[in-house]
Amino acid sequence: xxxxxxxxxxxxxxxxxxxxxxxxxxxxxxxxxxxxxxxxxxxxxxxxxxxxxxxxxxxxxxxxxxxxxxxxxxxxxxxxxxxxxxxxxxxxxxxxxxxxxxxxxxxxxxxxxxxxxxxxxxxxxxxxxxxxxxxxxxxxxxxxxxxxxxxxxxxxxxxxxxxxxxxxxxxxxxxxxxxxxxxxxxxxxxxxxxxxxxxxxxxxxxxxxxxxxxxxxxxxxxxxxxxxxxxxxxxxxxxxxxxxxxxxxxxxxxxxxxxxxxxxxxxxxxxxxxxxxxxxxxxxxxxxxxxxxxxxxxxxxxxxxxxxxxxxxxxxxxxxxxxxxxxxxxxxxxxxxxxxxxxxxxxxxxxxxxxxxxxxxxxxxxxxxxxxxxxxxxxxxxxxxxxxxxxxxxxxxxxxxxxxxxxxxxxxxxxxxxxxxxxxxxxxxxxxxxxxxxxxxxxxxxxxxxxxxxxxxxxxxxxxxxxxxxxxxxxxxxxxxxxxxxxxxxxxxxxxxxxxxxxxxxxxxxxxxxxxxxxxxxxxxxxxxxxxxxxxxxxxxxxxxxxxxxxxxxxxxxxxxxxxxxxxxxxxxxxxxxxxxxxxxxxxxxxxxxxxxxxxxxxxxxxxxxxxxxxxxxxxxxxxxxxxxxxxxxxxxxxxxxxxxxxxxxxxxxxxxxxxxxxxxxxxxxxxxxxxxxxxxxxxxxxxxxxxxxxxxxxxxxxxxxxxxxxxxxxxxxxxxxxxxxxxxxxxxxxxxxx
Length: 739
Fold this sequence. Notes:
Layout: E1 13-14, E2 18-26, E3 30-37, E4 42-49, H1 51-54, H2 57-71, E5 81-87, E6 90-96, E7 100-102, H3 103-110, H4 115-134, E8 137-138, E9 147-150, E10 155-157, E11 164-165, H5 184-187, H6 194-210, H7 220-229, H8 244-253, H9 265-278, H10 281-284, H11 289-302, E12 313-317, H12 383-386, E13 397-401, H13 415-433, H14 445-471, E14 477-479, H15 488-497, E15 502-507, E16 517-521, E17 527-529, E18 534-539, E19 545-546, H16 555-564, E20 568-575, E21 585-589, E22 595-596, E23 601-607, E24 612-614, H17 623-632, E25 636-639, E26 654-658, E27 663-665, E28 669-674, E29 680-683, H18 691-700, E30 704-709, E31 718-722, E32 726-729, E33 733-738
Parallel strand pairs: 15-18, 20-23, 25-28, 30-33
Antiparallel strand pairs: 1-2, 2-3, 3-4, 4-6, 5-6, 7-9, 8-11, 9-10, 12-13, 14-17, 16-18, 19-22, 21-23, 24-27, 26-28, 29-32, 31-33
Helix pairs in contact: 4-6, 4-9, 6-8, 8-9
C-alpha cells in the first residue's frame, strides 16, 4: 500500500529519467518510491538512499557492486534490479515494481497458516533463493516483508540491496538484517553464506506455521542472544498435530551449526517438494488451533444457554491434543468419561496438584483462585458423571479453567452451587421413578410371536439385500482402472465395464494431447465402492498465454518483459536499420499476441543502427559526375559557394571534398569545392635581355622556361620570346630564342 506522505522528492524527475509518483515505504537506509521510467514508459520501484549515506564513498561503491551482481540474476521469483546511479546528492537503485502485498500482510491477516498454504507460499521463495545462490549471491535479509505477492498471484523475493557476491568479504562487523530472522553466524560477526539465508527461511516458515516467531524479547539484543544460545523448537509444540516431516524441515533449516543445514536454496527446494508430495491431505490441511478455535467458539456462543456455568470455569473448544501434565492445565471433558465415572460407580481419588502453605494444612486462608480441597465437586473430571440428568455440552467442547496460565483452582463450584445441583438431580430421579415403565395390558402372546416372525423375515431380507448390495451390487468394491492417454469414450467404456459411473472435467496439461484423458480421481489402482463416482480429467492441451509486445523496446527491456511473462529468450539476430537506434528490438518471432505456453523461446531481431557507407573519392572529377557518384552511394552532395584557382585542376572539376574518406550514414553530407582553373599571369617582354636574367624573372612568376639557342647562343641575348606581353595560365611554358 502506498503511503500518502509529504515528500520533497515526490513529483520530481530523478536523473532526467525517473518521474517520482508516490512514496511506498521508508527503511533504515533508504526510502522506496513508485516512479515512472519515462524512457521506457513503465512503473518501477525507485530505492533512494538516505542523504547521510551518500557521503560514504565505500558504501556507494559496495552498493554499485551489489547492484551489478544482482542485475545479472534473472528469475521469475526474484525481483529484478534494472538500474543504479547518482543524480547530484541522490543515489538510487531501480527495481521491478510488483503491485500487490507482502507475506507479512498475509501473516498479519490470517495468523498461523495451514501446512499446505505455508509450503505453497515458501516454495517460490526457496526457488528464487536457489537461483541466487547458484549465481553467487546471498540475500542476508530474508523475512516476510521482503516476500512480494503480486495481484496476479506471482511470488517474488525482493530487496537484494544488501546482497553480496559470495566471493566478496561479507563480514562487515555489523548486523545487517532483521534481528528476528538473523542467523547465529551473522549475530557473531562471522562471514555469511547461502546457509545464512536458509536459517532465515526456516524462521520465516516457523512463523507461517505458528503465527509467531520462535524467539522474542523486550530488546533486540535479547532476541539475537537466543539465536546464538538457543535451539528453535519444533512448530508442533505450538500447533499440535503438525507432521513430523514439517518439524524436521524447520529444525533442519534452523540448526545453530551451518554445517547441519541445507547447503543452499536448491538443496532445500528438493526436500521441500518431496515433503509436499508425500504428506497426506489431512496433514497438509491441518488447521491451526486459532482457526479451529474461532469456529468452535462461535458454536459455543450459540449453546451457552444450555449448560449451567460453573464459577471459575468456561466452555472452550477441545484442543487437537490433550495437554501434558507439565502445563498444569486440567480439561474436564464429557467426551472422555471413564467407566468409573458412570452413575453408581465409585470414583477414583482425584489427582490434584499438591497444595502449598496454609491451604495444604486445611487452613481457611484463601488467595485469589484458591479454594479448600474439601469443596471439590467430585473426584471425576466429568460433571455429568455425578449429575447424569444434567444437560450435555455440545460435542467437542470441554470445561477448562479460565486462567490457563497456572494450576487450576482447587474447586470449581461452591457448596451452595453443589447443593443446588444435587437438589435438581434428586428431583429428576423422583420424576423418573414416578413414570410407569410397563403397560397394564399384557396383550396376546401369539400375536407377539407373529410380530417377531415378521420382524425376523424383514431383518433377513434386509441382510440379504445388504449382502448383495455390498457383495455383488453397486456397493461392492472395485479397482479404478488406468485411463490415462485414452479418449473420453474409451475411458468411460472402461469404467462402465468395471462397474463405475464417471463424470468429466476439463484441465490444462502440457504433456497430454487435447481430448485425451490425463487421469482420474480417485487415481488408477484405488479400490472404492462401485457406487462412488469417478471423475475423468480431460486435457485441454497446454495452457497458453499471449506474448507481450517487444518491438520498439530496448533489448534489456525486452528480456525483462520475457522474464515477467515466464517466456524464454530465443535467437537474437542483428541487422542495420536507418530509423531505429542500435539495441532496439525491430521484430519478434512468434509475433506479439500469439498464444503460447510458458517457457516458449521468443526470437528477437535487434537493430545495429544505420548502415555505415564508405565515402567515394571524387577529387579531380567534373562537378556533375562527382555529384552523381556521391548520391549513388546514398549520401548527399553539397557544392561550396566559393571556387578555388588551381593550375593543376581544370575549371569545373572538384579541387577537394569534405570528408575526403571514411564512412558516413545514409543521407549525410559530402561538401565539394570546385576549381576555377589556373590563375592568369601576364608574361613580360624580355627580348634584348640576357637569357640568365630573363629565365630567373620568368621562373619567379611561375612560368616554365625553355631556351632555344641559335649558333650556340654565343652572346646570351634573347632575340625572341613566345608568348610575350600577354596573360597566360600560371605555370605555362615560355620559350626564349637566344643568340
